[in-house]
Specification:
- Helices cover 36% and strands 26% of the residues.
- By secondary structure, the protein is of the alpha+beta class.
């Protein structure tokens, strides 16, 4: 059974453009991320782990380290093995092999391979322009920093490109109430912060900002220097106020479904644990062990008492029985469950984890 020891809070040295949106919505998530040295307390989805492979492969393609199908297949297999080795070390072997846990694994691999075709198109232009993959930029005061996936410079013109392996757009309502598809706000803000980082280092703003997804769809992000500067200063103020809260131990959290549902530090968040005592919309439960049942098939059911509510969690593996039995009447929290049709009844999944 997992346990949260005393949390070692630490100041956050800098904020990255990719971190800003999440930190703005709930700064305590970033506080916990730093306190646990960026090591998640819950398993990320299999798609997220695969996403790191896709993004790394894009980086290698852009750098020219992968230029043909032979290089691609060799490096792809190496990246998959590296991630699976890491999963094994973390105790998340239920995700292995990744190929069997990822929907459309083959299709995504084919889409990724199509990015190889971009290289011949770019090579004639290299003498006229400068291409830089994974270019690191930081602000003069070093409070904001991050890597730009691709920077293309032609004379005084510059284009910043960011690659996304997941969904880039979402449905939003316009002023008349009509639904239309638009790039996610967090991605817009991320690119605008990169634009300001580029300005701090070169004295000029980029000519354009662009997102490219796995299917090679291109999304142009409109921007102005003033809104980029506004976000830049907002990010610095956010970092400063968060660090002040860390030093004073006056944390500010914003526990909502949007902020908490996929947060990997839920087990250490007292604000979230208090929320699920009365909000039963999540796939996590908390309560004192009231009863345990071990069935002939080896599966275990645990009954948790939370106030007047009694939660039932079924299909826990047999090896959990003794551990749970040793903690009878004690309060535990169980994460990443599947809700059943009957109210307050859940089933364990391959990613279910228990914290005491």
């Amino acid at each position: 059974m997992n346990r949260i020891e005393q949390i070692n809070y630490k100041e956050i040295k800098r904020i990255s453009p990719s971190q800003f949106f999440s930190m703005k919505n709930c700064s305590y998530k970033s506080v916990l991320n730093e306190a646990f040295d960026k090591q998640p307390l819950l398993p990320i989805s299999a798609n997220a782990y695969f996403g790191t492979v896709l993004h790394k492969m894009l980086e290698l393609i852009l750098k020219g380290s992968v230029r043909n199908e032979g290089d691609f297949n060799k490096m792809f297999d190496e990246q998959i093995k590296s991630v699976e080795d890491k999963l094994q070390m973390q105790g998340f072997e239920f995700f292995i092999p990744l190929q069997k846990n990822i929907k459309d694994f083959g299709i995504k691999k084919v889409l990724l391979k199509k990015h190889l075709r971009s290289l011949p198109e770019q090579s004639p232009k290299i003498s006229d322009g400068k291409y830089q993959a994974e270019k690191w930029f930081e602000s003069k005061d070093k409070l904001i920093a991050g890597k730009i996936d691709m920077l293309i410079e032609f004379g005084q013109d510059a284009e910043i490109i960011d690659f996304k392996t997941g969904t880039v757009t979402q449905d939003v309502l316009d002023d008349s109430g009509e639904i239309f598809s638009d790039v996610k706000e967090e991605y817009k803000e991320q690119l605008k912060l990169y634009a300001c980082l580029y300005f701090e280092n070169t004295g000029r703003f980029p000519t354009s900002l662009r997102l490219i997804d796995l299917a090679k769809q291109k999304f142009i992000i409109s921007f102005s220097p003033s809104e980029c500067n506004f976000l830049f200063e907002e990010a610095k103020r956010l970092l400063q106020s968060t660090n002040e809260n860390i030093n004073k131990r006056t944390f500010v959290a914003n526990p909502t479904e949007a902020n908490c549902k996929y947060c990997l530090y839920r087990p250490a968040c007292s604000y979230y644990l208090k929320l699920i005592e009365t909000d039963y919309s999540f796939n996590d439960v908390s309560g004192s062990i009231k009863k345990l049942v071990k069935y002939e098939n080896g599966h275990v059911s645990v009954f948790l008492q939370n106030g007047e509510k009694l939660f039932t969690v079924n299909n826990l593996p047999s090896e959990k029985y003794e551990e749970l039995n040793d903690n009878r009447s004690k309060k535990i929290s169980i994460y990443n469950l599947r809700k059943e049709a009957t109210e307050f009844v859940y089933s364990a999944t391959k990613t279910t984890m228990i914290y005491a």
